[in-house]
Amino acid sequence: MSFDNSKPPIFGEIRFELPIAPVSQQANAAAKSAVTNEIRSITRLLEYILTGDVKIEIEWLVHEQLRYESDQAPDVDNIIKPLLDGLCGPEGLLRDDCQVQSVSCYWIDWTREDQQIAVRVSYMPDDWLKKKNLFFVQYPKGLCFPVNRDLPHKALNLIVNRVETMLADREELQQLSNDYYFSKTLLPIQRFFHRTRINGFSVVKIDEIRDRANDPV
Fold first, then answer.
1. Rounded to whole angstroms, what are the CA distances from 3 to 7, 8, 13, 178?
2. E strands within the chain?
3. Angle subtended at Cα 90 by Cα 137 and Cα 119, rounded to the nearest 5 degrees
4. Which of 1, 88, 116, 163 is the most exposed place for a label (fewest CB within 10 A)?
5. Which domain holds residue 23?
6. What tens digit of pLDDT does each residue of 36-90 get?
7. Has residue 217 been placed in a domain?
8. Reduced to 3 states, what is the DSSP secondary structure of residue 197?
């Protein structure tokens, strides 16, 4: 299936097929790694990563006899997690599976002996970033904000300081109003993620950015 690798489709949906059998969450590490590698053979070619909420539909094509008359086919609910894990990370399509708002998973009978997985991801068309030179600045409470490494030091420092001010203002307004959603309007459009939600990505603490701002350009 052909994609424009430079940016996600503007209609808010991307679909790809995997010529593999799914594995259960209880499968061994090698089996789950094989699924991850198959997914990332597609997603690592994409130059972007989705940053907002997504909905995922998983379609499993499998012979009916294998489903009903053998013990080789895993349960539908058990195949979801290995597929989601394969979609996440620096070479994936998502930062973390906390972005997944809903998942539907079902199997369809077909007459072939092999199996296939089709994955459809729906998203807001504007919620994405370029992967190249992407890193995260870590603020207090483990909150991390994405920035492009190619920016000059002074520009990075300006962004870091402005975002820090927004976070402080949000904190103050939330204490005054006791309303998370109201205070959230003070933050930038781009979402923060907790440090534990961006495993594998480059993360730099805020003080390191400030130190680099004094380096020669």
1. 9, 8, 11, 44
2. 13-18, 48-50, 54-62, 100-109, 116-123, 128-130, 134-138, 143-148, 193-194, 203-205
3. 130
4. 1
5. 13-128
6. 999 999 999 999 999 999 999 999 999 999 889 888 888 999 999 999 999 999 9
7. no
8. helix
Residue 3 included in any domain: no
Question: Cβ(203)–Cβ(139) under 8 Å?
Answer: no
Place of tokens 């204490």: 175
Residues 93 and 157 in one domain: no
In which residue are the tokens 């959230």 written?
184
- Three-state DSSP string of 48-93: EEECCCEEEEEEEEECHHHHHHCCCCCCHHHHHHHHHHHHECCCCC
Per-residue DSSP letter, 123: E
Instruction: Give exposure, 64-78, as e/b (b: 16+ Cβ within 10 Å).
Output: eebeeeeeebbeeee
**2 falls within a domain:** no
Instruction: Give the Cβ contact number of residue 79 at 10 Å.
Output: 23
